[in-house]
Amino acid sequence: MKLNWHRLTVHTKYPFTIARPGASVDGTAVNRIIVELEHDGIVGRGEAAPSPFYNQSLDTVEATLRQVGPLLGDDPYQIGPIVDRLLARFDDQRATVAALDEALHDWVGQRLGVPVWRLLGLNGTDCPPTSMTVGIAELDLIARKTREAAGFHIIKVKVGTPNDEAVLATVRENAPAGCKVRVDANCGWSADEAVDRIQALRPFDLEMIEQPIPPHQYDALRRITQTVGLPIITDEDSCRPADVVKLAGIVTGINIKLSKCGGIRQAFDMIRLARNLGLQVMLGCMVETSVGISAIAQLAPLADYVDLDGHLLLADDPFTGPTLQDGVVAPPDRPGLGIGRA
Hints:
CATH class of the largest domain: Alpha Beta
Strand order of the largest sheet: 5-6-7-8-9-10-11-12
Distance between the termini: 27 Å
């Protein structure tokens, strides 16, 4: 297999801010790497979305890609063994592994002439509606972004600031009647304050709370889940299949992102583990182009909740892929990941 890649900078429509440090968006600039695997005249594509929170960068992605050649072999159908070899060597660079996993799935789907969701035995038209994210901003901008999200049935609000109640009030004032609102604290609350902060937001009729506290505080997570009476979904706590077992009986569900777990194959394993352990499943994303979103959208039929709006936040997505209808982001009915050029 011939491996190529290139850096890509795209831009969000508005500055994108979350509560914790280590976000992968710098103001409006979003820096990604598009990976291309070529074999027998077919090119499979994937997207690396490195996060500083996980000690990843464009440089670490490229350093990893320069070393993976001997691990790829010459048979792109062998996705499982290839991904296993990559993770054994580069466990801390799962955003890079995810891009290669996506490219392999894309190649196989194109070679066989079927969408990846069909390869996985799924119904690509049976997807939950996505949320549309409103990041941390001044209240007037939050009001504007909420109004612009009127075509979506769910809004996800980034919280974890002293201004959370005013933010939620602004969202509710500007959101359509009946719109669901979920919040994502991105580790922004301490274990001691999280329950009080959540209770203060209850009047705003929240659907769920995502990652209220920094990761690996399992006793605190259990206490929060048992106390607040709202679904608690992890994100930074659910990076790998091994994390899922630790969360059983502690939280309501897990958020899975390809760039965190290492791709479609790892995400599929996490979904099966979660179901066996009685955990709900949310599929999420970084701010990514349609390459990365199309990859995770292939699994959307397996999810209870989805947050697949990363490409919708962009002003200059150079690719096409996922479809959007009545607030539902679905995988395209085209071979592989169904990626095209905008």
